[in-house]
Task: structure prediction
Amino acid sequence: MNNHTHVKLLMYAGSFFLLVLSVLAITATVFVTKGNQSYDENTISVTGNAEVSSAPDVATFSFTVKETTKTTEAAQEVLSEKISNILAGLRNAGIDEKDIKTESYTMYPKYEYVRVDQQQQDTAIDGTLYFPGQERKQVQVGFDVSQNVSLKVRDFDQVPAVLTLLGHLGVENLYGPNFEIDEPDALKDEARAMAIAEAQTKAKQLAKDLGVKLGKVVSFNEGSSGYYPEPYLARGYDMAVAESTSFELELPTGENTISSTVTIIYKIK
Result:
């Protein structure tokens, strides 16, 4: 092969190499351009907020009834008698049975530390506890049984009477009254519709200002919350107060507010 032919082959190879590089560069440019296109560049995102307030229509309570006895049968019998008295009292106060609900029922063995020399004797459940030591031993002395109950009072005029009744009957862990909206779904729907309307108005104005047209909705997200005032009576409530009938309770109910926040993303035409 002469030098002239060798030079021509080198020129052809160089031209082919440059052609390949050009094709690769164009492909890479197209790929990068498309790859850098952000979905958000072709969309508009707007947020709408709304709140709906309403007076509460129900007062809720929860409480616990406890008993400790030597046998499960005795514990259930005593607890059942207490609950029956409470239910009878609530019915007499005008509370509908459908508004009284057992949330939980538990029974656990009760243990105490007693002196070793007392092991052969019957251990009375008198509340006396002995700290463990070399001469102490933990033994089962009975059973703790408890029932947690919740109830709704729809007539607020009955709330003081219910508090007094529960105090007289010796319930524990009384929570309430909590003034709430019994069925808030309609208010949630109303708040959502108002939030969507606000977001739509914002989107239309934004599209007008940008000189673009709105396309279809490509994303929707909602967050909602409900605010309920602090209960007038709660954990620290003195049960002696509920047992007294010589005063008038002031129970402001206030209003409950349900809010909704929506985020809508529209595609730009």
In short: The chain has two domains: 37-57+182-269, 59-180. Confidence is low (pLDDT under 50) at residues 25-40, 118-123, 228-247.
